[in-house]
Amino acid sequence: MEAREVLDAMASLPGWQVDALLSVDDPESVSAYARRHRMSPHTALSRLRIAREALALKFRRWRR
Question: pLDDT tens-digit profile of 16-26?
């Protein structure tokens, strides 16, 4: 998979999903991310899971 494909897929996601996905690359913990966004750590993890699933779905659709 090329970097351009990843960028295009991420650009098609809603902003909160992109933010959740980019938080994985951030050195802060999930708890710190959740506090910064005023949400519980469970909500932050749930949003990350949903964003990962959405990105995976985009890739599956493009590869067909």
Answer: 999 999 888 77
